[in-house]
Amino acid sequence: MASDEKNSTERKSLFSKHEISMLGLRSNFVQASFSYERMHSPGWTWAQLPYWEKIYKDDPQGLKRVMTDNMEFINSSPPLYPILMGLLLTMEEDQVDPVTIKGLKNALFGPMAGIGDAIFWFTIMPIAGGISASIAKDGNVFGPILFFLIYLFLFWSRIPLAHLGYSLGTKAIDVIQENSRTISHVASILGLTVIGALIASYVKMELTIKIGAGNNMINLQKDLLDKIFPNILPFAFVFFLYWLLRKNVSPIWLIVVTFALSIVMAAIGWM
Membrane spanning segments where (predicted)? Predict the structure, then answer.
């Protein structure tokens, strides 16, 4: 009797195993549509669009909302995208609060980028490339064939990863719904922490200006600004760009301004 009740309350999936497998294959083409304004988001949206259309077939506004949310800037490790797609697809299917979905998605991009890049680009591919190149340099055709087979394995490995993500989403959905506010809050904090770390790690700005006279010359950057607040210039510049975004300035213009400022500052010798 208990087992019958349990089976009756089990979640029924809207998608077949074949459809989830196709989600994994579609994720291979995320980078086929790429821009510096949105990075992976066009391909990310395209890969999941047929599934959202099925979920929101009677809700045009819901489909518009999910497409808009997922066309925001996205950049992570593509080999692990199927896991995240499967997880988020389950949440969309079960009508989880969009704020929770968005917060969880943004919070996971950073950690998954670190894990995926470390596994694929810093471990598997360098080792595979080194072995294949050492074989190929002697004229052995098996070298490039080996490298192609490894890439082929990574291509097809996205299918089980999509099933893994979808399965995890199915099991975790009740917990997420019961603790959606807490998860959303924690995910937002984690996302902001990741963004802060990325600013300090990847945005490089250093002034070469020196002030003073004779032996009393000091470096404005190292001897003054960094003493007050390390990485204050990258921090200020990023928030300046964020302020411009809030003023509805196009990201394309922000890229142009960044390039122009870099060229001018380097030309006059201030950076």
Answer: 108-129, 141-162, 182-203, 224-245, 251-270
Nearest-angstrom CA–CA distance, 230 and 232: 5
Q: Confirm whether 4 is domain-assigned.
A: no
Which domain does 33 fall in, by range? Answer: 9-197
- What pLDDT score was predicted for residue 24? 93
Instruction: Report the C-alpha gap between 176 and 102 in whole angstroms.
Output: 13
Could you give the C-alpha distances from 29 to 34, 63, 75, 77, 118, in angstroms and in order?
A: 10, 21, 14, 13, 21
Q: How many degrees, rounded to 5, is the angle at CA 202 between CA 200 and CA 203?
A: 75
Q: Yes or no: say if 247 and 241 are a contact pair by the CB < 8 Å rule.
A: no
The per-residue pLDDT for range 79-101, each reduced to its tens digit, is: 889 988 998 898 888 888 888 88
170 vs 10: CA distance, rounded Å? 10
Residue pLDDT, tens place only, 124-161:
888 888 888 888 888 889 989 999 999 899 899 999 99
Q: Is residue 184 part of a domain?
A: yes
